[in-house]
Amino acid sequence: MNKRKNKKTDPLLIGILIGVFVVALTFDLLKWTFNIPGIAWVATAGILGLIYFARTYLNERKRARIIEYRRQYLQKHGDLEQLKQMSPSEFEQYISDLFVQMGYNAFVTEPNGMPCEDLIVSFDDFFATVVCRNGESITVTPEEIKKCESSLEKSNASIAFFITTGDFEEQIHSQSVKLINGQDLMKLINEVTAETKGGQLYQPLKLLHIQ
Question: Keywords on this record (predicted)?
Fold first, then answer.
């Protein structure tokens, strides 16, 4: 008994048929488009513009609500004694949220053995590392700052921030590490939460000039 041979469809023929269909569909679409009255074009443009502005407005409202919610959280937990009682990870997350509120990109890093990289923050081409120390009776020594300075040499960071709820020994001075003690931190929190009230923007690089 003879077996029937399966006839394979020619791929070239399929391609030609699809091409003819696409060309015919495009031609009909163009013909229909050019027959639309001018008033319909104006109405369509108006609707699209309205959708665009409505979406922009809603996104802006959402952004403002997020900023305001984060501002209230920072303000509520921005008491020095309360910050001292936080776990190290909670304090790092709080400081990360504070940087985000200031307009930075910020995230808590995974433990990597680096002495000055609890956080990474950036803004445009500005890039910095942050070390966070909280707790009772903290006094940061020059040796800790020198470790941060050495860490900066191994990274592409513009500067490092050393933020603590305690204080620094009086003889500490650094050109590459910005020192923020407990009192400075309270001033910063108060300024940021005041200036971002109602979803307003904060100027990130102002942080470099806060004494």
Answer: Membrane, Transmembrane, Transmembrane helix
Crossing angle of helices 88-101 and 38-76, in 10° steps, is 140
The answer to whether 140 and 133 are in contact (CB under 8 A) is yes
User: What's the rounded Cα separation, in Å, for the pair 181 and 186?
Assistant: 9
Residue type, 99: F
Q: Return phi, psi of residue 138, to 5°.
A: -95, 130
Partnered with residue 167 across adjacent β-strands are: 139
Q: Domain residue spans in the chain? A: 77-209
**CATH fold group of domain 77-209:** Trna Endonuclease; Chain: A, domain 1 (3.40.1350)
- Asked if pLDDT for residue 211 goes beyond 50, the answer is no
Q: What's the mean per-residue pLDDT of the chain? A: 84
Give the C-alpha distances (Å, rounded to integers) separating 106 from 46, 99, 188: 39, 6, 17
Where are the extended beta strands (E) located within the chain? 105-108, 119-123, 126-133, 139-140, 159-164, 167-168, 177-180
Q: Give the model's pLDDT for residue 132.
A: 94
Tokens read off for 183: 């009192």
d(CA 121, CA 127): 6
